[in-house]
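We emphasize that the prediction below concerns an isolated chain of 197 residues; any contacts that depend on oligomerization or on bound cofactors are therefore not represented. The input was used exactly as deposited, without trimming of termini.
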Amino acid sequence: MPFDKPAAAPGEPFRILTVCTGNICRSPMAERLLQAGLDEQAPGQFLVESAGTGALVGNPVDPRVAGMIRVLGGSADNFAARQLTPQILRGQDLILTLTREHRSKVMELDPSMLRRTYTLREFARIYEHLELDESLEAPDRWRTAITKAFRARSAHTATADEDNVVDPYRRPDGVYQQMQNEIGPAIRTLIASSARP
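Result of the prediction step, given as a token string:
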């Protein structure tokens, strides 16, 4: 049964969910860096959380990823991995997955989330080309962007390698760096867009 819900009303935080597999590497990094950046631009106006399609439930952020998050200005404190469920999807304004496979898993759980589910890199790529009303508050700009992004999706297609973020879990340090290099630009694009006057 789908749990679709209208976007949050004005005045409520704009809710973003990041999704990967284990919920200890990629999605926590995206969650914590996006939350830190949005808090600087629009304090209290965004709530970013994460979950995993095959979560290592209760685990903290992978130590190497936690170090990266701290260096990049976020915090990995007070984190516990959790399994993605329809209940978690309920009420989210935007779901940003770390691969196309994760995006498909979201659709399996709740097909009604189609218009609000993108890979992180896909949404950033589309967002930077949208024409939005810069006089709007950041959350309202994001709400408008979701509607326009769905219409623009077919004009901004890419390869799987351009949409996906590599899974570094239990792999060499170079793969962790690749993950950071793939997540970082997308996060910076989204944060910069929220800083428009």
